[in-house]
Design a protein that fits this description.
The protein is an alpha/beta fold. It contains twelve helices and 21 strands. Bound molecules: ligand LLP.
Length: about 425
């Protein structure tokens, strides 16, 4: 199977994290998100171990919580000794609600409002990743008012295109994120940072994109940022202690994807490269941070639906409709993302029926997947979509006034609701 937490039991049912998904669908209803807690923890540990073993002991993965944010996930991150990358005060609030230590929160965003800055400083968030001059000045002003020095990293755009989907590609020069190195803007910005009061610059951040299966784009980004670091050391006398390399490695969604990246091997290769370049450039090896989101939670997630009907448009195609859709997984509608779809209650039946899986939203593009092979489905079958742990719940909506599914956490044969399913009352809770 695609990932080792997927299996088939004697009844021919799909298992996830060792549990029968058909039983889970019956017990908790559909649509339903499942999470495999052990897989989340194992994914954290791979990054933690590799960063610690290859770089300084304070090198740390920061969980990019935009991938999946609810209180329980921050508790797991706290227990696993991870840091957190937050992109909004909503994420910071959720993390703090889970007692996640504020000093291990890194606050991102290309437009932090004055309110955001006040909230984060008031709650003693460890580090800001500063995007632009207006933000820098606003942080400095409020930190001064509070009588503190705020730690910061500066976000750089290294000008790299790792050939991923354009909408998730953030490191190239023409980007709304960070300060471009190539145009000289980054160096000018560092000059301003170094004379700005009430902030302490620790080093640099860059993020080149998402769903990257190779270590080479990370090496190229590190090369560019290390050269920049040496240039700043020479021209301004500032030596960066921290380098944050941004998001994590890619994840397999379908059999046709490249093999799952070997995080330990890739980070070790990266460290070897950086060590040799640092010695050539006469730089100390920086503390290295990474911000994996997808590769922490994606393969720890699975979505279950119930099939409502099958409609064959003669001469065209067959639609299988399910009791969810772009509201709980907008990724096909948005990016055309591939997913592995299965009939969870009929895993041993021949998959000889080519179909399009449609959700229940009133919109023709609201599909889960096109041209998948399933056994001929009928009403009441349980349809599973694998690898939905990242960017599904966190991107879910109430379009068509559909209730968001709950999340059930699976661990050691136990299944616990960690986010309850929304009710109709939740839908009108903000309406006055
Ligand atoms: N750090 C920064 C600055 C980022 O912009 C991102 C993702 C990450 C870390 C986490 O990257 P990851 O390890 O998850 O690849 N909604 C899209 C993904 C957008 C990712 C944007 N930034 C999707 O569903 O594919």
């Amino acid at each position: 199977m695609l990932h080792s937490n997927l299996g088939i039991n004697e009844q021919g049912h799909l298992t996830f994290a060792g549990q029968d998904t058909v039983d889970l669908a019956k017990r908790f209803g559909t649509a339903l998100y499942l999470l495999d807690e052990e897989r989340i923890r194992a994914n954290c540990r791979r990054y933690r171990k590799a960063l610690r073993e290859n770089f300084s002991a304070d090198s740390l993965p920061l969980y990019a919580s935009k991938a999946l944010s609810f209180t329980g996930i921050y508790r797991i991150m706290a227990e696993e000794g991870m840091g957190v990358d937050a992109v909004s005060c909503g994420e910071i609030y959720t993390a703090l609600k889970a007692d996640f230590p504020a000093e291990r929160i890194y606050f991102h965003g290309n437009n932090k409002t004055d309110e955001d800055i006040r909230y984060a400083i008031d709650h003693q968030v460890g580090c800001f990743i500063v995007d632009n001059a207006e933000e820098l000045r606003a942080i400095s002003a409020y930190a001064g008012q509070k009588g503190i020095t705020q730690k910061i990293l500066v976000r750089l755009t290294p000008g790299i295109d790792p050939h991923t989907f354009a909408a998730v590609n953030t490191g190239k020069i023409d980007s709304q994120f960070g300060q471009p190195i190539e145009t000289g803007q980054a160096a000018a910005f560092i000059r301003e940072v170094l004379v700005t009061e009430h902030v302490q610059l620790l080093g640099y951040h860059c993020h080149i994109g998402s769903q990257i299966f190779d270590w080479v784009p990370f090496r190229d980004a590190a090369e560019i940022v290390l050269r920049f670091s040496a240039q700043i050391r020479d021209s301004l006398g500032f030596c960066a202690q921290v380098l944050n390399l941004g998001g994590g490695f890619g994840v397999r969604y379908v059999e046709a994807d490249p093999p799952q990246p070997d995080v330990a091997a890739y980070i070790s290769q990266l460290a070897q490269y950086m060590r040799s370049r640092c010695s050539e450039l006469n730089l100390p090896l920086p503390t290295v941070l990474m911000e994996p989101g997808r590769s922490i939670v994606a393969d720890a997630g699975l979505t279950l639906y119930t099939v409502g009907g099958v409609k064959t448009i003669e001469g065209y195609r067959s639609y299988v409709t399910v009791d969810g859709g772009m509201t709980d997984n907008p990724r096909y509608a948005l990016y055309g993302s591939p997913y592995t779809v299965m009939l969870a209650n009929r895993m041993n039946d021949k998959a000889d029926f080519c179909c399009t899986v449609a959700g229940r939203c009133c919109e023709s593009g609201a599909l889960i997947q096109e041209n998948v092979m399933l056994p001929r489905a009928c009403r009441g079958d349980i349809l599973a979509v694998a690898v939905t742990g990242a960017y599904n719940f966190s991107m879910a909506s109430n379009y068509n006034r559909l209730c968001r599914p709950g999340i059930v956490m699976l661990k050691d044969g136990q299944a616990n609701v960690v986010v309850r399913r929304q009710t109709f009352a939740d839908l009108t809770a903000c309406d006055l």
